[in-house]
Structure formats: structure tokens, C-alpha cells
Design goal:
With 319 residues, this protein is of the alpha+beta class. Helices cover 19% and strands 34% of the residues. It is built from four helices and 21 strands. It has a seven-stranded mixed β-sheet, with helices on one face. Strands 13-14-15-21-18-19 form a six-stranded mixed β-sheet, with helices on one face. Strand 5 and strand 6 form a beta hairpin. It is globular and about 45 Å long. The structure holds 3-(2-carboxyethyl)benzoic acid (3EB).
């Protein structure tokens, strides 16, 4: 494949200190309110989800020259092929307004700057399962995301970014970061699940995300949970939910390998981020992840009340 973005990612322990060099850093996510002394040209997404064992930074790099800037409230850094952006908004006029504004600014930025293909979006919002004005906040978020997609004439099905949407600590701002590309991204769906954008009405406004995406030789696996078809399975059983989630990720890797010409993705070379609803479930969840080399745990509420765990992953193909 001609595309060679040279995108690299790394989970760096806080104990290791700040990256020694920033020239090649596209952007960073920090967790749990950790402070990072980065130069102002590096976008930092401050994600307010408590780290459950090691705290770490998620660092994205490329081997290409970088340029930084701001578009509306989106802080970005870009190479010739890729752009990482971050936006954080307080909910002065409610979650719907903030989400729609954030997405409109993201779409305007990536369109204007010439990186229209969104590969992966990470979404964090407080009180995700709380109902206000008769609608759960996750559903308000979905409604607003759809409204922005429609306003920018973007697809609501099929060609939609891989994503995750998690609950952050109360009173934290809506925080979104994303990777966008000049070149097309390949969406991947899970044969074991109904596409989220085709969920039945009972789940509220349809969530516009794909189960995974392929960008060059990188596979992004969206937040994945214990859902088969469109239904939650193993309610109340965190061990079984973790196993089912891993079966879903296995199916996605198989599907990515079927679709992709990028080489071979495999479960044991992915890096995993695990969102745990109840910190006390960590030992049971961890005991199901003994085959995975790189796993980081965060405490976060998950977008359905009955889901106890959600797992995302990223990995590079090997030839
Ligand atoms: C699910 O499969 C679980 O709304 O962007 C996973 C990944 C989930 C992304 C999103 C939601 C999102 O429906 C929830």
C-alpha cells in the first residue's frame, strides 16, 4: 500500500517522566488529571478518568515534519498525511449544545485543513448514564453527534469513524480527541454484532461509529463491550462480559484481516485500554487478560447501565 503515515503510538508510564523529545509528537492524551509539561504546540487531551494501576500518557508520533495550530477551539498538530486534534468544552448550555459545537468545529477543522477522513475519535463526558430532561446523557450525545454529521453532510452509516464514548468524572469538561487523515480510512464492522448505526430504536438516537477502522497499517478497535447482536449479554457477570468482549475483538481482528491488504493484525500485538465501571472488578477483569501483552486500566462509566467493562485496542500489521 502506498500510504505510509508512519504513525506510532506508545503508552508511557508517568514514572518514566515526560517524553524527552517532542519534535515528532502529534499529540498526547493524559488521564486522571495528570500534569504533563509539554511545549504549547503539542495538543494535550486531558481525559478525566481515574487510572486503576499504572498511570500513563498515550503518545502519538510520526516520522514526518509537523506543524501545529488551532482551528476554532480545536488544537491540532499535523504531518503531511495525518492530523491529531483535541477539543475540550464546558457545558455552559447543556451537553447537546456542547457536543454539537465540538463536532461542528472538528468537521470544519478537518475539512478546511484537508484531512477529511476521520479514523478514530475518543469521547469523554461526565455523568454519561444520568438522565436529564427525560433523556440519558449518552443519548443526548448521540443525538448531537448525528446533528453535526447531518449539518456537515457526512455519512451516518458505513463510512463513520471508529470511536469510544466513556464517562469521565463529574464536572469534567466534554473532552474529545481524534486522528484524521488526508487519505481514505477503511471502516470495519463486527460480524457478531449489529452495526451501532443500525441499532433498533430502543437504544435511542443511533450511535454513528464503526466497530474498527484501518488507516495505513494501523488497526483502531473502537470501544468494544459484551454485546451480541444488539443486546447486552451476561448482565451482572463481569468475567463473562470480559470474555465476550475479547471474543468480539477477536472477531474484529479476523474481519480486519479479511478486508485489509495491510498485512496481518493479531490479538497479541495489540495494545489495550480497558475501561472498568467498578474499580472493585479489576482483579476479575485482569484475570481474563493474561494473554495480552500491553493492557492499561481506567475507571469509567460505560454507555449502557448494564455494561461493566469496555475494551479498545490499537495495533500495527505485521507482514
Ligand atoms: C456499544 O458497542 C458500546 O458512542 O461512540 C462503544 C464504542 C460504544 C463507541 C460511541 C459507544 C461508542 O454500543 C458503546
Amino acid at each position: 500500500m502506498a500510504f505510509e503515515a508512519g504513525l506510532q503510538f506508545e503508552y508511557v508510564s508517568l514514572a518514566a517522566g515526560a517524553p524527552a523529545q517532542w519534535d515528532d509528537v502529534l499529540g498526547v492524551a493524559t488521564f486522571d488529571g495528570a500534569q504533563l509539561h509539554a511545549p504549547p504546540e503539542v495538543p494535550i487531551a486531558s481525559v478525566h478518568t481515574p487510572a486503576l494501576d499504572a498511570n500513563f500518557h498515550e503518545v502519538w508520533r510520526t516520522r514526518q515534519p509537523l506543524e501545529s495550530g488551532r482551528y476554532a477551539r480545536v488544537q491540532f498538530r499535523r504531518s503531511a498525511e495525518l492530523l491529531l486534534g483535541s477539543i475540550s468544552l464546558t457545558e455552559a448550555s447543556g451537553l447537546h449544545t456542547a457536543t454539537e459545537a465540538a463536532y461542528r468545529e472538528i468537521f470544519a477543522a478537518v475539512n478546511e485543513l484537508g484531512y477529511p477522513h476521520l479514523a478514530r475519535i475518543w469521547n469523554y463526558l461526565p455523568q454519561i448514564n444520568v438522565e436529564t430532561q427525560g433523556l440519558e446523557r449518552y443519548r443526548q450525545f448521540n443525538s448531537a453527534r448525528r446533528d453535526a454529521l447531518i449539518a456537515y453532510r457526512r455519512d451516518l452509516t458505513g463510512n463513520v469513524p471508529a470511536a469510544c464514548a466513556l464517562g469521565s468524572v463529574t464536572d469534567s469538561p466534554l473532552t474529545i480527541y481524534f486522528l484524521a487523515s488526508r487519505q481514505a480510512v477503511t471502516p470495519v464492522e463486527n460480524p457478531r454484532q449489529v452495526s451501532a448505526y443500525e441499532y433498533p430504536e430502543q437504544y435511542g438516537p443511533k450511535p454513528a461509529f464503526s466497530r474498527a477502522s484501518i488507516l495505513g497499517d494501523i488497526l483502531f478497535i473502537s470501544g468494544t463491550a459484551s454485546i451480541v447482536g444488539h443486546e447486552t449479554v451476561h448482565a451482572g457477570d463481569v468475567t463473562a462480559q470480559t470474555r465476550e468482549t475479547l471474543a468480539n475483538i477477536d472477531a474484529l481482528v479476523g474481519e480486519a484481516n479479511r478486508i485489509s491488504g495491510a498485512g496481518r493484525f493479531s490479538l497479541d500485538t495489540l495494545a489495550y485500554k480497558v475501561y472498568v465501571r467498578h474499580a472493585t472488578d479489576l482483579p476479575l477483569i485482569r484475570s481474563q487478560l493474561h494473554n495480552q501483552a500491553q493492557v492499561l486500566y481506567l475507571q469509567a462509566d460505560i454507555c449502557r447501565q448494564d455494561l461493566l467493562v469496555e475494551i479498545e485496542a490499537v495495533g500495527r500489521a505485521t507482514r
